[in-house]
Amino acid sequence: MAEGYKLIYSGRDERGRNGVGIIIDKKLKGGVYGVERKSDRIMCVKLEIGRGSTTIVCGYAPQAGCEEVEKSIFWRQLDRVIMEIPENERVIVGADFNGHVGRRRCGEERAHGRWSVGERNGEGERIMEHAMAYDLTIVNTCFRKGEGHLITCKRSWVKHQERGHQRKRKRRGTERDKRKERSKEDVGFDRV
């Protein structure tokens, strides 16, 4: 890749859709010690930054028009990926979740900053549920930006903020343990 950057890519499905990738800065590429391609929608890159390990999770959630089963498979797989990361590692989730979290609601202060636009949709509910279950922060809601920078999808009838970058805090035991148990019970997870 140009100027010494490193591109790590996870292919696409048999229909020619999907695919995710991460571009690693030339200063950090020597610290990469692991790449896990989980599917055509999720991959992880493990690297040493400073004195600790960081896992970057890259994802591309199914769009609003996709089947509900495809969406459920994605979120169960993302749950498993997050649960596999050791508690002492930093986690960054950079993804296009194809949802809109809208304005913050009471009780969401740790997961959602105060800067956002519009109303939450169904996919946004899933994003918030995931962020709160793993004590992640949706970072792009934590900084004030001009409306032109908030909007990532703009059509004549709708504007919304789709992309989410999440950062792991510390473990939130009870909800995470419940989700872990539920994911063990799910049948057909590996049929991606």
Brief descriptors of the model:
Craniofacial development protein 2-like, Endo/exonu/phosph_ase_sf, Swc5/CFDP1/2, 24% helix, 192 residues, Deoxyribonuclease I, Chain A, alpha+beta, disordered C terminus, 4 helices, 10 strands
Protein model, in words:
With 192 residues, the protein is α+β, with helices and mostly antiparallel strands. It contains 4 helices and 10 strands. Helix 1 crosses helix 4. The longest helix is centred in the middle third of the chain and has 17 residues, at 68-84. InterPro entries: Endo/exonu/phosph_ase_sf, Swc5/CFDP1/2. This is Craniofacial development protein 2-like. Residues 174-192 have a biased composition (Basic and acidic residues). It comes from Ladona fulva.
Write the layout of secondary structure elements.
Blueprint: E1 6-10, E2 20-24, E3 32-37, E4 42-49, E5 52-60, H1 68-84, E6 90-96, H2 122-133, E7 136-138, H3 147-150, E8 153-154, E9 159-160, E10 163-168, H4 173-185
Parallel strand pairs: 5-6
Antiparallel strand pairs: 1-2, 3-4, 4-5, 6-10, 7-10, 8-9
